[in-house]
Amino acid sequence: MRSVASRMSVMSGEGALSVFARAKELESQGRSIIHLELGEPDFHAGPSVVESATKALAEGKDRYCAVAGVLALREEIAAYLQRTRNIDVLPANIVIAPGAKIALFLAMMALLEPGDEVFYPDPGFPGYASITLGLGAVPVPFELSSRNQFQPDPSEIAAKITGRTRMMITNSPGNPTGTVYTDAVQRELAELAVKHDLWVLSDEIYARIIYGGEYISMLRYPGMAERTVIIDGFSKSFAMTGWRLGYTVAPPEVTAALALLAVNSYTCVAEFTQYAAIDALRDREGNTQRMVAEFSRRLEQFVHDLNNVPGFRCASPDGAFYAWVDIRGTGIDAEEICRILLEEAGVAAIPGAAFGPRGKDFVRFSFASSVENLREAAARIAKISTAWQGTLVER
What is the pLDDT of residue 395? Predict the structure, then answer.
């Protein structure tokens, strides 16, 4: 009997999208829903970015173009990374993709053999383990724990390294915890990668969304230039989620492999969007800085309000736009908390187990929504907290 490939049975979806589907179903029934489940800024690309896309279309830039991406965009990305992350990369080492997810998928496809072991953060973006399994490799989680401020523990990773270990995935700032890895932690991770000759896939999609301090890319550490693959894109830092623009920065041999995979899959990214991306990177209107400042204002208020909910405990994130709430004090599991919030309070949030087993006692809220929505959500949550106040656990 015909069937789909066996790899599909080990891959998984995303909890955020399933919650979103249910939330939209409730909305269609006339319910008021506050969407705090999706990692999507409530901003849009700046006017000049839209104008650049329109101009490019008017000029006929809607044809096949270079597989690796328009050279002008790759040059602009190289300048942008030097300016914002103090790293020097060549345009020839950049490949444009239709979204950071595709960049992530193809980078892993280019580097992993069946049976290879891949370290990834738990809790973390669900795609890390799912793609690993789909490629026949073995996902090996490293814990991000509240007792360690959700920083990776290099000693844990070192103890798990075997002869089959091939790759380490880092994500700073991280989804869902909002953690920015410290310089000391990253330095130790880099030393492990060099010592054991590992690839490091550095997911830097939230690199511009930090709330204080300097962002340090994994590429800046000794010995990392030849083994680091950066995944980044325009969805988060430039509020261009629907534009589907991502990119990979990689050593030359990996770039060549990615270009070959592009030829065999998406051919090239839409030309006119690439010209708009050049304008986004230059950001003459200060859109990214203004957005991050607004996120900072929101998180301060929202985290304060969440910590006033009985049984909730939330530390302020260092980056990204997620509130990662410890709900153990409620005495109810996260799945049930999220069901109550959505079905009874009209607030959509994600149970932490969607990001890995270590997230089972947490709920993720996105604060990429208006101040008014966040205040209303907090008020609804506080009101519905009577559903679990009789089971509160002392913490």
Answer: 55
Count of residues making up the chain: 395
State the DSSP string of 349-394. Answer: -EEGGGG-GGGTTEEEEE--S-HHHHHHHHHHHHHHGGGTGGG---
Whole-model pTM above 0.85?
yes
Three-state secondary structure call for residue 48: helix
What is residue 31's three-state secondary structure?
A: coil
Of 204, 173, 252, which is closest to residue 80 (Cα–Cα)?
204
**Between β-strands 246-249 and 313-314, what pairing exists: parallel, antiparallel or unpaired?**
unpaired
C-alpha to C-alpha distance for 207 and 205, rounded to whole angstroms: 6
| CA nearest neighbour of 319 among 218, 235, 237 | 237
12 SS3 class: coil
Q: What is the pLDDT of residues 112-161, one digit of tens each?
A: 999 999 999 999 999 999 999 999 999 999 999 999 999 999 999 999 99
**What pLDDT does 393 receive?**
67
Is residue 391 within 8 Å of residue 330, measured between CB atoms?
yes
CA gap 205, 41 in Å, rounded = 13
